[in-house]
Amino acid sequence: MRHGKKFNHLGRTASHRKAMLSNMAKSLLEHKRISTTLAKAKELRKYVEPLITKAKDDTTHNRRITFSYLRNKEAIKLLFGEVIEKVGGRPGGYTRIIKTGFRLGDNAEMCIIELVDFNELMLKEEKPAKKSSRRSRRGTGKATSEEGAATEEVAGEAKESAKAEKAPEEEASADASDVVSEDKAENKDEDKKAE
Q1: What are the Basic residues biased-composition ranges (predicted)?
Q2: In the chain, how many domains are there?
């Protein structure tokens, strides 16, 4: 009975499954990328990532443990040499699964599983995270320094011209308000005399 054995048995006996995962792990370490079904890739990830973590500490004991899983001296040399040089600083997540569609014969979901730090194309695409700014209702947001300087100059000129236009109007309105206030004062004086 299975009784809580939740991992995917992949339709194989225990010995067949162990041998298959060992061979796939060896191929992954050798070629850095292999194409397989999604179910096998997910099981392979669970199989190979603890081995890579063990390889970070290069001791005879860890070499013997990883050899008991891989059963291949060349794979052990690659793991403790070339692979650990690249992934030594990474705290986990050494593999990446990329789905590639469905196989023509049986419609099985296919994917590529690869070691993360060996994909040069993905490493080039990584750019520093751009600082995002919130959008506001007030304006278009932050402008570049050149655009900002040009905008400030235009705004300054517009303010000066607006002030120049307002100045005669303000003087005229000030004169008019003085005249109105003088008229009101005269009217009050006349009202008092009339009483």
Answers
A1: 130-140
A2: 2
